[in-house]
Automatic annotation (TrEMBL):
GO annotation, biological process: fungal-type cell wall (1->3)-beta-D-glucan biosynthetic process; fungal-type cell wall organization
Protein name as catalogued: 1,3-beta-glucanosyltransferase
Protein keywords: Cell wall biogenesis/degradation, Glycoprotein, GPI-anchor, Lipoprotein, Membrane, Signal, Transferase
Molecular functions per Gene Ontology: 1,3-beta-glucanosyltransferase activity
Membrane topology: Lipid-anchor; GPI-anchor
The species this protein was found in: Saccharomyces cerevisiae x Saccharomyces kudriavzevii (strain VIN7) (Yeast)
Domain X8: 156-250
């Protein structure tokens, strides 16, 4: 909640309207963030209102954002060049405002009594799903599974690293790949309550997954991923054998099954061994045999340049 900036007031900041909106809410609520930084150092005068009589009966306090100073300039302390913590004026102001606050707690019995009274007076149930009124589905996504997502970094033949300043490529590449393969396994829709198997993974992992699915479908038999970009590379780790019945092996089987459910994948390329890809990686002996050729070729080119240069000078 960043509506209170500098020396604003309960009436002019918007706090009054927010409090009115939640005055009959049946569960405890609090400000997960507060601390507008349009004025620095921040005086944090909103603390007195948040813990005062007008708001304490509705709100259960709040959390000032944030502790360490970063580029966004919301911190109350800063790490100096020596790795030590420097206290900023914002910290002192927040400390002083908290010292002035004297909120009164609510016992469990008081809360239950108030809750029962609210139930008899008003219906606090969420409204039925309706366009423009309440579009959030009751079905929530599952807890993110970091282990399963990390498996994608190991098993997928094509990997993507962050695009940084070229973030616009995400939309472009997803648009292209999702026109070639089924991307429902990474999509999440809070309105319909449908969440793909890998919808909780990072954007790079999601893009790598779709790119690898296209690699499988095309039936590539080399280390060239079907997207020419410096941030896309063939993942050599995917060539390593996986422990039988491991989480990553199960994830790989799942990816292959959903990719080739229509029978369009080239079967031999789904089981890609080191031998099948060895042609792209010369052996040490091959490298040694190639070296003299490289040096001879370079010497010939240097000699040719010298002759041409001499002719020009003559």
């Amino acid at each position: 909640m960043y509506e209170w900036c500098g020396y604003s007031t309960y009436g002019t900041s918007g706090y009054r309207e927010r409090t009115k909106e939640f005055e009959d809410y049946p569960i405890p609520i609090f400000f997960s963030e507060f601390g507008c930084n349009l004025i620095r150092p921040r005086p944090f005068t909103e603390v007195s209102a948040l813990y005062g009589n007008k708001m304490a009966t509705v709100w259960s306090g709040g959390l000032a954002y944030m502790y360490f100073e970063e580029e966004n300039e919301y911190g109350v302390v800063r790490i100096n060049d020596d790795g030590e913590v420097d206290i900023l004026p914002d910290f002192k102001n927040l400390e002083n405002e908290f010292k002035k606050a004297h909120p009164k707690g609510t016992t469990h019995e008081q809360y239950l009594t108030a809750l029962e009274n609210q139930k008899t007076e008003k219906n606090n149930e969420c409204p039925n799903i309706a366009t423009g009124i309440w579009e959030a589905n009751e079905k929530l996504p599952g807890t993110p599974d970091k282990t399963r997502c990390n498996c994608l970094d190991k098993i997928l033949p094509c990997s993507v690293v962050p695009f940084g300043a070229e973030a616009g490529k995400y939309e472009e590449y997803f648009g292209y790949l999702c026109s070639k393969v089924d991307c429902s396994d990474i999509q999440a829709n809070g309105q319909t309550g449908t969440y793909g198997e890998f919808s909780d993974c990072s954007v790079e992992q999601k893009l790598s997954l779709q790119l690898s699915k296209l690699y499988y479908k095309i039936g590539s038999n080399d280390r060239h991923c079907p997207l020419n970009d410096r941030n896309v590379f063939f993942n050599l780790e995917s060539l390593q054998p996986l422990p039988k019945d491991s989480i990553c092996e199960n994830v790989l089987d799942f990816v292959k099954n959903i990719t080739c459910s229509d029978g369009r994948c080239s079967k031999p390329d789904l089981v890609r061994s080191k031998q099948s890809l060895k042609v792209k990686n010369p052996s040490n002996n091959e490298k040694k045999n190639d070296s003299p050729i490289a040096y001879k070729t370079s010497g010939f080119i240097i000699l040719l340049i010298s002759v041409v240069s001499a002719g020009v000078l003559l």
